[in-house]
Amino acid sequence: MDTLAYYNDLMARMEELFFHELSDCAGWKTEFIGVDFIQSAAVQGDSRDELIRNSLQAMVDAGLIRGAAFAVAGHDILLTLKVRGCQHMRKEVKLKARGIKLYNCIIANMLNDQLIEKLGYTTTYVAAIDADEDDGLCQVKVAIYETPEKIGCVSDWSEECRKIDEEDRWIRVGA
User: Where are the strands (E) in the chain, listed by range?
Assistant: First the structure.
């Protein structure tokens, strides 16, 4: 039996049922899923980028992901992630196939936890997830607010993502 597939199927069903129960509010209730792992990894970092890079490296080392790239833009509130070889891809694919809007990225949850717990960020949330099984790539947009004054800042995230790609501002970890 493929135990990873089994557990991803269980999580997909649970997230589907939870989404039907709470709709777009489901994401707010799942933001702590996965944080136990990253907290036990005792990741260190004195800056946002160092902490994110070290957290992603811990995930690569543990085999949760094969690699990732990240960039921060849009008044320093848009954290964009490209995650390759994620152990949770099957869950995302199943949810998409069932017509469920993807709302719970365990990898982003771990990063958000570290930003809040270690650097004192005011709040964070997963804004958008796109999983492409054919490419083995998840792209995630996360809102990160370092201070209360940052809440309410706006920018054109599509334009910001275009600039990140165009200028290759990605910080890469793993494969």
Answer: 67-73, 78-84, 123-132, 137-145, 171-174
Residue 165: CB atoms within 10 A of its CB come to 13
Per DSSP, the residues of 56-87 read HHHHHHHTS-SEEEEEEETTTTEEEEEEES-T
For 24, list phi and psi in degrees, rounded to 5. -70, -5
Amino acid letter at 69? A
Q: How confident is the model at residue 69 (pLDDT cuts 50, 70, 90)?
A: very high
The whole model's pTM is what?
A: 0.90
pLDDT at 27: 67
Predicted confidence at residue 30, as pLDDT, reads 77
pLDDT mean over 72-78: 95
Contact between 80 and 73 under an 8 Å Cβ cutoff? The reply is: yes
**Pairing state between β 171-174 and 137-145:** unpaired
